[in-house]
């Protein structure tokens, strides 16, 4: 029995490692929408058997990142403009809701750190596109999640984390200089931080909704290749 538990624990560890590795590759665009996931190649590359790999792929399917079809195998689930609209409809509800109580708990230090983080993005405006995407995504999501985590509703962070992989994928797909500029996104977020600092809940909620509409329109830009 003990040996069986050890074997199960090892399988679980390998499954989680495979799950995290594949998920990160999908979110960063290393594995692109529609790509087939060869079980034999991935298993060989990771040095694992197909059992933990299949469990990892099943977990990714449950999260909506992978599609598994009998006789075809697994592939990365494509994203559509409809997915963008659905995700942003959800964000436009959740984030203003979170901000209503977050404004009571965000400190001056928090706001100063937000400003510094966004101002720091300007140094990357001439960097390679992948660097811009990585830095922008990191600062942007930290800011938005900080608002959610400072709210008094413990369920909101869990709900936001469910759509995090989709947001990361969208950023990789659509972040282009013609869709966004670092200067523009910094200015957008500075206005949000000013609103948070004012403590006016109505202004904060409207600023967040306006910002998310601007962000969604960037994702829906006709130049975006889906």
Radius of gyration: 20 Å
Taking pLDDT < 50 over at least 5 consecutive residues as the criterion, the unreliable ranges are none
User: What number is the mean pLDDT?
Assistant: 89
Number of strands: 3
CATH topology of the largest domain: Four Helix Bundle (Hemerythrin (Met), subunit A)
CATH 4th-level superfamily of the largest domain: GntR ligand-binding domain-like
DSSP helix fraction: 55-70%
Q: From the helix content, strand content and strand pairing, which structural class follows?
A: mainly alpha
Looking at the structure, what is the overall shape? Answer: globular
Indicate the proportion of strand residues.
Answer: under 5%
Major sheet description: 3 strands, antiparallel
Strand order of the largest sheet: 1-3-2
Order of helices and strands: HEHHEEHHHHHH
CATH architecture of the largest domain: Up-down Bundle
What separation lies between the terminal Cα atoms?
Answer: 50 Å
Indicate the CATH class of the largest domain: Mainly Alpha
> How many alpha or pi helices?
9
Number of domains: 2
Compact overview of the structure:
With 226 residues, the chain is mainly alpha-helical. Helix content is 69%, strand content 4%.
Secondary structure: elements and pairs:
Blueprint: H1 2-27, E1 36-37, H2 39-46, H3 50-62, E2 66-69, E3 73-76, H4 81-102, H5 108-119, H6 129-149, H7 156-174, H8 182-198, H9 201-219
Antiparallel strand pairs: 1-3, 2-3
Provide structural commentary:
This protein is mainly alpha-helical and 226 residues long. Helices cover 69% and strands 4% of the residues. It folds into two domains: 2-76, Winged helix-like DNA-binding domain superfamily/Winged helix DNA-binding domain (Arc Repressor Mutant, subunit A, Orthogonal Bundle), CATH 1.10.10; 81-219, GntR ligand-binding domain-like (Four Helix Bundle (Hemerythrin (Met), subunit A), Up-down Bundle). It has helices at residues 2-27, 39-46, 50-62, 81-102, 108-119, 129-149, 156-174, 182-198, 201-219, and strands at 36-37, 66-69, 73-76. The protein has a three-stranded antiparallel β-sheet with strand order 1-3-2. Helix 4 packs across helix 6, helix 4 (81-102) crosses helix 7 and helix 4 runs antiparallel to helix 9 (201-219). The mean pLDDT is 89.
